[in-house]
Amino acid sequence: MAARFYTDRLVMTPGPTEIPLRVKRAMVRESINPDLDPSFLELYNGVRDKLRRLLGASKADVYVMAGEAMIGLEAAIANTVKPGDKVVVVANGVFGEGFADLVRAYGGEPLMVGVEDWRRSVDLGELERVLERNRDASLLTIVHCDTPSALLNDLRSVARIASSFGLLTIVDAVSSVGGIEIDFEGWNLDILIAGTQKVLNAPPGLTIMALSSEAWNRVRRVGYKGFYMNLALWKEMLDGKGVFPYTMPDVLVYALDEALNIVLEEGLENVYARHARAREASWRALEALGLEAYPASIEHSSPTVTAINVPRGVDDAKLRELTWTKYGVMIAGSWGKLEGKVVRVGHMGVQASRTYMLAAYTALARALRDIGYPASPSKVVEAIEEVYK
Which band of pLDDT confidence, cut at 50, 70 and 90, is reported for residue 5? Predict the structure, then answer.
């Protein structure tokens, strides 16, 4: 297998992901004072325009904020939830349940949906029944791709139902933006949060947020009094006065700008098709290995990550250690109720390619064989090559 990689070891985890050379080079340009240099504001606004293209958000307000994506998730709740508010939480995953914790932290009442089944997209019938019983609910939260389980929720259908009941939809799209189609305006989404260290292959440290006009109405009514996570300050200061609420990490914005250039140059349809093919290759490889994916079917599995049930008698930590230290490929475990039961292969951005998938799954096959599990690297290669021929 001839392949050219950025390093002699591969990070095939579902974030942080490998940083392409073009993005690394963007980070070594001269750093200036982003508070005062008008050229930085121009570049920043250009990044916002590129994100609007990526998100299908031509009319929405889009911001890039300093802080890893968890800042964005908490800011979304802090600015929209008042004590006593009912919030419908699609909770079929670790980060889905995490939204409930945030809602409680700000005095809201989470109404949980999908808690029992983390292997399938949320049941739309169950969701409608919960909404019928709670007509006074005001918001709905959903995780598009819940990385610990590799689950992909049917965001478009969920948002359609939420909109029909008059709810605002808050979306954690941290692990899907850049690998799966999202139409912010066409699907009537209201707040979307994304990160840079996943599919976009940029360093961690920035949050991407998009807000609809309806979301802004809600933000104004709630009147959040904090500072760092106060979304109203961005509209007032950046959009109103052309200044940032706080100093931006300009080097990280340069990196994001180049990462977006890479995606847009390839073309969004091509990018999404490439990720879908990587998912297919991943599932074919598991079949060749005699392993089972955690999601119930490929339709419920994200094109950006695959979660694999660890075979009985195999220690997941030992498997991951061997895959990394002996074969040079880093894969991930999971956490919550899936800790020790699942390992994960990321196929995000540059990872979603024939050469990276071959490297990841042949390393996994060899590590399994070392442990004593009957695995055939040659069969894995045949299965993946069949997808890419």
Answer: very low
